[in-house]
């Protein structure tokens, strides 16, 4: 399975690099255009990435548990020294008592998982581009080439250019609600806009020129709710409609070749480690409690003979140093959560 994931990652990386190319920072662009389309494609690609990473990390975790599980010979050897080992759970403690070759493979799995957790989802990312634009707040007379003036000569030339586009019917007319929606917090499909108010002015029809990169209501409105526009005279006016310039969106879906190389290398390490785990496997490890029960029923443990009521707390209390002492059975009510220690519960839930 790890080899299949490796082949998939390698094939897709080579195909994407050749098909889309990469820049000098080794960033490739998969698609460019509609922001909604970019978001959808990004969602599906990340679902595929999460599926591949789940398969890879699940297989890796299973191999780590097999490698840290002790064999019967290792258990007997440690029991003869009065030392206990973990069975049926991933155990770092067991690493000090098992063969060094398995410990090395265990660390290969563990260390190669860190970059996958941190970087795999970052290999493909979307760049959402918001537009900067000019907003003219005007009286209706402005569109009929009524008189207007502005202090800044550069802003005056911009206002003249936008007015020329409106006269040539290059701008879309939007009603008040649509205008406020299109020029919300993220403006990607619209550019310059003429905000036509309900206030008439036959002597100076251009109220203000603003250069914006976000929701214009925060700059031109006295209150966001209702969007009343304050005038120099101190009165408030409302938006009648807008004339808006439609532009192509510039959102991108990109990938990082450097990150994919790291992912492929970690994938390769896991694939080789899995092969060695199977190839080097000699004695049968006791991975589950069922494995241990079966082994001890077939071949009883001499180190714990006559100690059938022994509990973990007895072992930790040094009961192996008092071999032969009888223990009286006392029924105690236990709960499922006590199957693991408090420390294990805290570590597991914090992760």
Could you please describe the fold and organization of this structure?
With 351 residues, the protein is an alpha+beta fold. The chain is 44% helix and 15% strand. The protein has eleven helices and ten strands. The chain has helices at residues 2-20, 35-68, 72-79, 100-119, 153-167, 176-182, 217-220, 257-279, 289-298, 312-316, 342-350; strands spanning 27-33, 124-127, 133-138, 172-175, 190-197, 206-212, 229-230, 236-237, 239-246, 251-256. Strands 4-9-5-3-6 form a five-stranded mixed beta sheet. Helix 1 (2-20) runs antiparallel to helix 8 (257-279), helix 2 (35-68) packs antiparallel against helix 4 and helix 4 (100-119) packs antiparallel against helix 8. It is elongated and about 110 Å long. The mean pLDDT is 85.
- The largest beta-sheet arranges its strands as 4-9-5-3-6
Helix segment tally: 11
Assign a percent range to the helix content: 40-55%
Strand content: 15-25%
What is the overall pLDDT average?
A: 85
Largest sheet composition: 5 strands, mixed
Q: Please mark out the parts with pLDDT under 50 across 5 or more consecutive residues, or reply none.
A: none
Q: Kindly state the number of beta strands.
A: 10
What is the terminal-to-terminal distance? 26 Å
Query: What pattern of helices and strands is seen along the backbone?
Result: HEHHHEEHEHEEHEEEEHHHH
Structural class: alpha+beta
Radius of gyration over all CA atoms, rounded: 35 Å
Backbone shape: elongated
């Amino acid at each position: 399975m790890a080899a299949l994931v490796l082949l998939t990652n390698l094939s897709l990386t080579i195909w994407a690099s050749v098909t889309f190319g990469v820049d000098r920072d080794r960033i490739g662009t998969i698609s460019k255009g509609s922001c909604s389309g970019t978001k959808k494609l990004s969602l599906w690609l990340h679902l595929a990435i999460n599926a591949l990473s789940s398969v890879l990390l699940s297989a890796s975790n299973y191999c780590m548990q097999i490698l840290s599980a002790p064999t019967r010979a290792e258990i007997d050897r440690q029991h003869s020294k009065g030392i206990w080992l973990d069975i049926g759970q991933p155990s770092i403690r067991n690493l000090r008592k098992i063969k060094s070759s398995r410990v090395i493979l265990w660390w290969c799995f563990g260390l190669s998982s860190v970059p996958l957790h941190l970087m795999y989802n970052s290999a493909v990312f979307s760049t959402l581009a918001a537009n900067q634009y000019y907003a003219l707040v005007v009286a209706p007379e402005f569109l009929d080439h009524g008189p207007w003036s502005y202090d800044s000569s550069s802003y005056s030339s911009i206002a003249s250019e936008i007015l020329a586009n409106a006269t040539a019917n290059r701008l879309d007319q939007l009603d008040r609600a649509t205008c406020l929606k299109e020029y919300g917090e993220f403006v990607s499909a619209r550019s310059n806009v003429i905000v036509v108010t309900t206030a008439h002015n036959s002597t100076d029809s251009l109220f203000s020129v603003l250069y914006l990169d976000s929701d214009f209501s925060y700059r031109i409105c006295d209150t966001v709710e209702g969007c009343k526009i304050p005038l120099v005279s101190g009165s408030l006016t409302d938006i009648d409609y807008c004339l808006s310039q439609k532009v192509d969106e510039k959102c991108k879906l990109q990938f990082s070749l450097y990150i994919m190389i790291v992912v492929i290398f970690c994938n390769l390490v896991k694939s080789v480690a899995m092969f060695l785990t199977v190839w080097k496997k000699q004695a049968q490890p006791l991975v589950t409690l069922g494995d241990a029960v079966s082994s001890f029923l077939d071949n009883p443990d001499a180190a714990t003979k006559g100690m059938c009521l022994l509990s973990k707390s007895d072992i930790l209390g040094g009961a192996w140093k008092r071999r032969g002492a009888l223990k009286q059975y006392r029924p105690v009510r236990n709960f499922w959560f006590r199957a693991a220690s408090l420390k294990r519960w805290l570590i597991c839930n914090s992760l």
